[in-house]
Each structure stands twice: as C-alpha cells, then as structure tokens.
Amino acid sequence: MSVRLLLDPGHAPAERCAQKADLPPTLQSVPLKPGDLILPSPVNAHDHGYGIRTLDFSAPDDALEVWIPGLRLRPRTDPYLEALVAFGRLAKTGIGATMHCHNSLNADHLVDEAGAVMRAAGDVGIRLALSCPLLDHDAWAYDGGPQRLQPFLSEDDWHALSGTIPNYASVETQLAAVEAVAAANTSPLVDVQYGPIGPQWCSNALLEAIAEASALHGRRIHMHLLESPRQRIWLDRRFPDGIVPYLDRIGFLSPRLAIAHGVQLRPDELELLAERGVQLVSNPSANLRLRSGIAPIASTIEHGGLAFAIGLDGTGLDDDQDLWREMRLLYLLQGECGLTRELTAGRLFDAAIKVGRRVINATDAADFTIVDYQALISDALFDDVDEAEILLNRMSARYATRLVVAGREIMRNGELSRVDFDAARAELVSQARADLPRLERQRPLVHALSAATRAYYASWPGVS
User: Fold this and answer.
1) Which of 24, 235, 260, 454 is most buried, judged by most C-beta within 10 A?
2) Cα dihedral sign for 452, 288, 363, 115?
3) Where is the Amidohydrolase-related domain (predicted)?
4) 363-390 as b/e, with b when 16 or more CB fall inside 10 Å?
5) Cα–Cα distance between 254 and 228 in angstroms, integer?
6) Residue 57 and residue 248: Cα distance in Å, rounded?
C-alpha cells in the first residue's frame, strides 16, 4: 500500500504506512492507493453558508459597509436547501467542519431555520458549529442607525426604505431562542453558540447578557470584531476606554470566545485577548475583497501568542470555497520580509486544525482528508521535502480525494456520498430565479442605499 500519515503537519514528517493496520481504526476500511497522504481535516472556522453566493445575487465586492446593503438582494430560498448546497460545496473540497454564522435576523424564525441548517449538516455529514445571530442595533449605519442615512437619500427612496427598518426582539427573547435551538439539537456533530453580530450592532445590555449567559451555560460565543476602519473609528467613539477592555470588564473575554476578522486590533488589544484565551479567526480573502485590510496575524505571535484559526467567510479568493488556497494566501500575506519566518507551516496548520476545532467546540474530532499526494509531487526529484510545505505551496481542492468525518466517508473523488449535490444546487438556483421579480424591484433601492452609505461614511472626518 505505502501511504503517508501526516498527523502533525509542520511539526513532524509523515509516517510511511505499508499496511492497513498502521492506520487509525476509522481509516482502515477506506479505500486508499499508493501515494495517498492522510492528514487531519482543517476547519473552516468562520462562514455564512451562502448556497447562492453574493456575486450571484448582484452584491459585488466593495468596502464592507457599502457592500452590506447588497445582502438585501439575497433571494428567498429554502433554508435547508441553502445550507445543504453551502455545506456540500465545502465538503467537496475535502473540508468537513465549519462555523456557520446564520443570517436570519428574525428571532421568531430562528428555531425553525436553525433546525433546517442542522438537518442539512447531518445529511451532508459535516461537523457544524451554529452561531445564532443576536443584535438589537440596526445595521444600516453606525452612530445612529437609519436616520443617519436619510440626508443622503431621495424622499421617495427614504420612504420606501424606512418601511423596512426591523423591530428587534428583546434581549430575553433572543437569548431564549438560542437556548431553544440548543435544546432541539440532537446531533453530537453540532454545537450551538451565541452569535452577537458585532459590538457595533449590539447594545451594552445585550453584550452583558450574552457574557452572563455564556458563563452560566458554558456556551461558546462567536462574534465579528473590528473588521473595518469605520468600525474602529465608531467603536473608539462609543467606548473611549476601548472596546476590548470594555468586553473584558463585563466578562465577555474568555476561552469560550472566538472573534472573526480582527483586522483593526492593536498590540495592547492582542495581548489582552491572548491573556484571556480568546481565539481570532482570520479571513484573508474576505478582508481583501471588502477592503478591510490585512489582519495582524504575525503580530499575534509577538504579542502574547493569540491563538488564531482560518475561515472563508463565504468570500474565498475565487469564490470557490477552497480553504487550502485560503491557507496559502494567509501564509504568504503573513510571511513578512525577514530572514526567519515567524508564521511557520506548523503554526499555520495548528491554526487550521487544532485552533479551528476549538472554535467549533470539537477538540476531540477525528476527521481526515485524503490527498492525492503523488500528483502534488509528480515531478519531484527528492522524496523527503516537508509535506506541510508541499501542501501550503500546491494543495487545492482538486487534490482532495476523500473526506472522512466521525468515521464516515462523506466525499470520494469530488462527489458527495450521502446527498445529490447537483440536484440540490439546481433546485436552489431554480428557487432563487423564481424570486427574480422581487429582486428586480428591490435593486434600485439597494443601489440607492449603498450610495447613501458611501456618502455617509465619506462625510466622517478623516475617512476617504
């Protein structure tokens, strides 16, 4: 047989296994071929489960705040089908675990939608962390909400859009909905978490209640934090002593917390987060595509060793949900220009596997991806080059040949074992196209809202 078993990428070379008995028990019945490489499957530690991707519903890349109104054009489709396609697309790349930040903003629908999402994860066979959305400040504009945009909209557009301002449920109702979702969960492969969208969209009362509930129930929290320059400016105004120290004072910072993006974090904030055991999830493609910048991952090593993971955020480099390429992008972006690399291959794989599993609350997971390693090194003159370096330089989804999650093979040669991905995708697209008349009516208003948002933030001192 002769396959490679790379259990600790970047820290130790692969073991050469000549017989099935040399493999972990969950892999001994999986068909393998000479030249295969087996490694623990990385985790997509931050995503939104876009079955229909943002460009497909006419939300092109832009500055984050200007881009957000485009999400109003997301077509109305079956939540189960939307999640099934998103999770299936990921599993086809050889990734079997994801953090899903659900996009519903209606607490009345959360339990039903979350149930559909969990069922989709079970049908595909992936491991899932479900971050339940919590917010009570409107996402139209920081520093005052929708009324701040009124001067930048025509009277007709304001009249049409003002009727869409949501009424958010009480803090108690929202937290109760999360607990109802958790109570309905029967899968050992699913972890339900609190999902405050971001401090700019949450009141102090909501943030404090989440911190208290997390401590009481031992439930993890997954939150966006300091993604864009505009968020940095606004949160500095709202919290003159600092948003991160405020979160610390209310007991929000703990090993149960993961924060996504963190592009605008400062050295002192990195140190405090590291001291409290918080994990940072980096999303390099999304941060580049939405003009937020590059997260200070290299600085996390210097400032207390803040643990970090990696996520696609639904906007990978080529819109292909290829976490392998995302890992490469982060590795290159954070390489710096010194003679010695601080972000080593070992640290990067630890981020993608070990810290990623912590983020989804699955530290004991035993999930594996099988790679056609022989294809990756077909022209190699030496057979002893560090496998982790080969993977970081050449690996992409097309080389992932099998995926085993919790002992079950859920993908083989790019095809899902448990669901008909092509049929599901065709039905999802059909549902989305059936919603086109509504979307066509909404597009002019959404474009007006995006333009008003751009003008509003451009009016801030020091913002271009």
Assistant:
1) 260
2) positive
3) 38-339
4) eebebbbbbbbbebbeeeeeeeebbbeb
5) 23
6) 39
User: What's phi and psi for 141, nearest 5 deg?
Assistant: -155, 140
Within 8 A by CB and 6+ apart from 212, the residues are: 251
Count Cβ atoms below 10 Å from residue 217 Cβ, excluding itself: 15
**Exposure letters 254-292 (e unless 16+ CB within 10 A, then b):** bebbbbbbbbbbeeebbbbbbebebbbbbbbbbbbbbeb
**pLDDT given at position 106:** 64
The stretches in the chain having pLDDT less than 50 are none
Q: Which long-range contacts (CB under 8 A, 24 or more apart) does 22-25 make?
A: 24/366, 24/368
Q: What is the dihedral of CA 193, 103, 250, 210, to 10 degrees?
A: -50
Q: What is the pLDDT of residue 304?
A: 65
Nearest alpha carbon to residue 78 among 90, 70, 67, 86: 86
- Provide φ and ψ at 218, rounded to 5°: 70, 20
pLDDT of residue 1: 59
Is-contact 101 135, C-beta < 8 A? no
Distance CA 219, CA 160 (A): 40
Alpha helices by DSSP H, listed for 334-394, are 345-349, 356-359, 373-376, 387-394
Rounded Cα distance, 77 and 51, in Å:
9
- Integer Cα distance of 98 and 128 in angstroms: 5
What are 196's strand-pairing partners?
134
Locus of tokens 């969950």: 26
pTM listed for this prediction: 0.97
Nearest CA-CA partner of 355 in 300, 407, 398, 286:
300
**C-alpha 456: how far from chain center:** 28
Q: What angle do CA 316, 306, 359 make, to 5 degrees?
A: 55
Q: How many CB atoms lie within 10 A of CB 61?
A: 16
Q: Give the C-alpha separation, 188 to 182, whole Å.
A: 12
Rounded Cα distance between 279 and 295, Å, is: 13
Q: How far apart are CA 209 and CA 171, in angstroms?
A: 8
**Topology (CATH) of 42-363:** TIM Barrel (3.20.20)
